Amino acid sequence: MGFIEAFKVCIGKYATLDGRARRSEFWYWTLANLLIGIVLGWIPFIGILISIALFIPSIAVGIRRLHDIGKSGWWYLLILLPLVNLVLIYFFILDSQPGENQYGPNPKGV
Asked: Which of 31, 56, 60, 87 is 20 to 30 A off residue 11, Cα-Cα?
Protein backbone atom coordinates (compact mmCIF):
# COMPACT_ATOMS: atom_id res chain seq x y z
CA MET A 1 0.00 0.00 0.00
CA GLY A 2 1.38 3.38 -0.98
CA PHE A 3 1.40 6.68 0.85
CA ILE A 4 -1.52 8.30 -1.00
CA GLU A 5 -3.59 5.10 -1.01
CA ALA A 6 -3.12 4.67 2.76
CA PHE A 7 -4.21 8.26 3.38
CA LYS A 8 -7.31 7.79 1.22
CA VAL A 9 -8.22 4.53 2.99
CA CYS A 10 -7.94 6.15 6.42
CA ILE A 11 -10.04 9.15 5.38
CA GLY A 12 -12.56 6.79 3.74
CA LYS A 13 -12.83 4.79 6.99
CA TYR A 14 -13.06 8.02 9.01
CA ALA A 15 -14.55 6.54 12.20
CA THR A 16 -14.61 2.82 11.36
CA LEU A 17 -13.33 0.92 14.38
CA ASP A 18 -13.99 -2.58 13.08
CA GLY A 19 -11.78 -4.43 10.67
CA ARG A 20 -8.02 -4.54 10.33
CA ALA A 21 -5.32 -2.11 9.16
CA ARG A 22 -1.96 -3.15 7.75
CA ARG A 23 1.30 -1.82 9.11
CA SER A 24 1.85 0.26 6.00
CA GLU A 25 -1.58 1.85 6.31
CA PHE A 26 -0.92 2.84 9.93
CA TRP A 27 2.62 4.13 9.45
CA TYR A 28 1.85 6.03 6.24
CA TRP A 29 -1.09 7.65 8.04
CA THR A 30 1.21 8.60 10.91
CA LEU A 31 3.76 10.04 8.48
CA ALA A 32 1.03 12.01 6.69
CA ASN A 33 -0.15 13.47 10.01
CA LEU A 34 3.40 14.44 10.90
CA LEU A 35 3.97 16.14 7.55
CA ILE A 36 0.63 17.93 7.67
CA GLY A 37 1.42 19.08 11.21
CA ILE A 38 4.81 20.44 10.17
CA VAL A 39 3.49 22.23 7.08
CA LEU A 40 0.21 23.60 8.42
CA GLY A 41 0.86 23.61 12.17
CA TRP A 42 2.39 27.05 12.17
CA ILE A 43 -0.85 28.59 10.85
CA PRO A 44 -2.81 28.94 14.11
CA PHE A 45 -6.43 28.54 13.00
CA ILE A 46 -5.78 26.11 10.12
CA GLY A 47 -3.46 23.94 12.22
CA ILE A 48 -6.05 23.55 14.97
CA LEU A 49 -8.82 22.69 12.50
CA ILE A 50 -6.66 20.09 10.75
CA SER A 51 -5.67 18.55 14.08
CA ILE A 52 -9.29 18.24 15.15
CA ALA A 53 -10.32 16.80 11.77
CA LEU A 54 -7.58 14.14 11.82
CA PHE A 55 -7.98 13.17 15.48
CA ILE A 56 -10.79 10.62 15.02
CA PRO A 57 -9.25 8.88 11.98
CA SER A 58 -5.98 8.59 13.91
CA ILE A 59 -7.69 6.77 16.76
CA ALA A 60 -9.63 4.59 14.32
CA VAL A 61 -6.55 3.48 12.35
CA GLY A 62 -4.72 2.77 15.62
CA ILE A 63 -7.55 0.53 16.82
CA ARG A 64 -7.75 -1.24 13.46
CA ARG A 65 -3.98 -1.79 13.62
CA LEU A 66 -4.37 -3.43 17.03
CA HIS A 67 -7.11 -5.62 15.55
CA ASP A 68 -4.67 -6.68 12.84
CA ILE A 69 -2.34 -8.23 15.40
CA GLY A 70 -5.23 -9.85 17.28
CA LYS A 71 -5.47 -7.34 20.15
CA SER A 72 -8.59 -5.59 21.39
CA GLY A 73 -9.00 -1.91 20.62
CA TRP A 74 -9.10 -1.25 24.35
CA TRP A 75 -5.32 -1.60 24.36
CA TYR A 76 -5.28 1.81 22.67
CA LEU A 77 -6.04 3.36 26.06
CA LEU A 78 -2.40 2.72 26.98
CA ILE A 79 -1.66 5.88 25.03
CA LEU A 80 -2.87 7.79 28.10
CA LEU A 81 -0.15 6.36 30.36
CA PRO A 82 3.34 7.84 30.16
CA LEU A 83 6.11 5.34 29.31
CA VAL A 84 3.65 2.43 29.33
CA ASN A 85 2.43 3.58 25.92
CA LEU A 86 5.74 2.30 24.52
CA VAL A 87 3.97 -1.07 24.48
CA LEU A 88 1.68 0.39 21.81
CA ILE A 89 4.64 1.25 19.61
CA TYR A 90 5.81 -2.35 19.93
CA PHE A 91 2.33 -3.57 18.97
CA PHE A 92 2.20 -1.20 15.99
CA ILE A 93 5.52 -2.58 14.71
CA LEU A 94 4.41 -6.23 14.86
CA ASP A 95 3.46 -8.04 11.64
CA SER A 96 -0.15 -8.93 10.87
CA GLN A 97 -1.65 -12.01 12.47
CA PRO A 98 -1.70 -14.60 9.68
CA GLY A 99 -5.05 -15.70 8.34
CA GLU A 100 -8.41 -14.57 9.59
CA ASN A 101 -8.94 -13.52 13.19
CA GLN A 102 -11.98 -12.38 15.16
CA TYR A 103 -11.74 -8.91 13.59
CA GLY A 104 -11.84 -10.03 9.97
CA PRO A 105 -9.72 -11.41 7.15
CA ASN A 106 -6.05 -10.56 6.80
CA PRO A 107 -5.77 -7.31 4.80
CA LYS A 108 -2.63 -8.60 3.12
CA GLY A 109 -4.78 -11.18 1.37
CA VAL A 110 -2.27 -13.93 2.16
From this structure: 87
